[in-house]
Prior knowledge:
The structure is a single chain. Helix content is about 10%, strand content about 35%. The protein is mainly beta. The strands form five sheets. A five-stranded mixed β-sheet has the order 5-4-13-8-9. Strands 6, 7, 10, 11 and 12 form a five-stranded antiparallel β-sheet that branches. Strands 15-22-21-17-18 form a five-stranded mixed β-sheet, with no helix packed on it. The N and C termini lie far apart (about 55 Å). The mean pLDDT is about 95. The chain binds ligand MTE and molybdenum atom. Ligand MTE binds near residues 45, 46, 149 and 204.
Amino acid sequence: DPYADDPIRHPALKVNSQRPFNAEPPPELLTENYITPNPIFFTRNHLPVPNLDPDTYRLHVVGPPGGQSLCLSLDDLYQFPKHEITVTLQCAGNRRSEMTRFKEVRGLEWSAGAISTARWAGARLCDVLAQAGHQLSETEAHVCFEGLDSDPTGTAYGASIPLARAMDPEAEVLLAYEMNGQPLPRDHGFPVRVVVPGVVGARHVKWLGKVSVEPEESYSHWQRRDYKGFSPCVDWDTVDFDSAPSIQELPVQSAITQPKDGETIESGEVTVKGYAWSGGGRAVVRVDVSLDGGLTWQVAELDGEEQRARKAWAWRLWQLQAPVPAGKKELNIVCKAVDDSYNVQPDTVAPIWNLRGVLSNAWHRVHVHVAP
Ligand code: MTE
Ligand code: MO
């Protein structure tokens, strides 16, 4: 069993698949803290978790022609300036189960918990690439990452990002060796993973073994044959994966974590809580909440750290306290966020449904009963 050596996990996690391990925190724990505690940070593994020895670990960085390839130990990585940032990581499949309910899709049944936030620390990728002699002159190039996890045929997990993002110090792409002040937990990439702020989780390659600059995107299955969006009219017989760009920056997202769907709430006052985030460093400027399915709206209060302009890498938590409208036996609670490009979430799943169930960011809806 290639999974026999996987780590022990926190019992509160809702498991979507045991082998490979995929799990999300329950909603009430997800937004209890602005920073997600490591043991309940969502986990998305495609393969068995490698068990790497920090003393013999090496990161291979391929240099350009005429440059210098690097073979870095953990101690070597610690010599680069240490950079620490708060970043929210979201899987492209977050909230897929809502798409499935509309029409069947292929993929893990994530609820709204395939998203979490941590303080990440490590070396900046741009510093490491510069040391190997890379420059931004290779304008159309991509930085390819390979994990040290692999399938029985020896194929490793891989993904890539544009070189322009990797070389931009303002983009703050990290080779992270710390998560919330601790060495990375095994499930989250021990000893080193990539953190690409504002970009889909799939590019944050864990158990990083190799970095190279290539003229083309990674040839990995997960870069080319997965993690792409399509029209609702495309099905598995007609899909042409080469016709769509790989997902990089994610669209604006928000979800309700309290109350829970199907719950019975007290009459009087209701507290609605949730999270909101957008890709590409776009800040959340507003979260609107409706108690009547979207007919009337109220503006939620934003909590958590203030976001930096163009570098809003981490989510906002939000809440709304409101009187329960008199005489109501049930409420249809809805939330939607607005980012600083005034991007909004679509009201329903129908126009964004896609066969792989990615990019699921319709208004989030929770139906509750009101105690008599
Ligand atoms: N890196 C490797 N090596 N193997 C993987 O399976 N999964 C990716 C990414 N990096 C993956 C990986 C996907 S799809 C996501 S959403 C994130 O890791 C999840 O990171 P987490 O498990 O730390 O939450
Ligand atoms: Mo993912």
